[in-house]
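FAQ: What does the model actually see?

It sees only this:
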Amino acid sequence: MTITLRPELLTKQRFAPYGDVIETSRERSEAMNEARFERFDDLCIIDLDDDSQIAVSIARCRTPTSLPLRLDMVERHPLGSQAFVPLSRCKMVVVVAPPEESVDAGALRAFVTNGRQGINYHRGTWHMPLIAFEAGQEYLIIDRRGGKPNCDTHMLDDPILLEAV
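And it is asked to produce this:
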């Protein structure tokens, strides 16, 4: 049996059980550098275990993905959160499940960004691996490095078909 997921619009409220939405908001800006810039602080919480450090990386898409997409596996990072912020305007699609010991395929939810949003998965949130729809698309990644391995994978009992948005 295949479960079909249609992505819903990403909002802070909808995504709260799984992580943070990283986006600017006029209500939360501060002036900086003689008011030539607006600064948006505390857009997500980077959560790490005590035996690690924050890593800032960039990933560039080599092979674009198209939808519909069949998903057989999800992953999680139990020792730290993981953030992805597109470096240019692009639509992101993410599939998530609650941070529990196992994954119930019926609990999976899909979200699509508005092209300007990034996401930060809470520690332990199950999610599909990063995908992009254009070769060359780059993402800033903020996550954990050092210490013990930090990626668990889970093969789904029933495959998921992620529909086009």
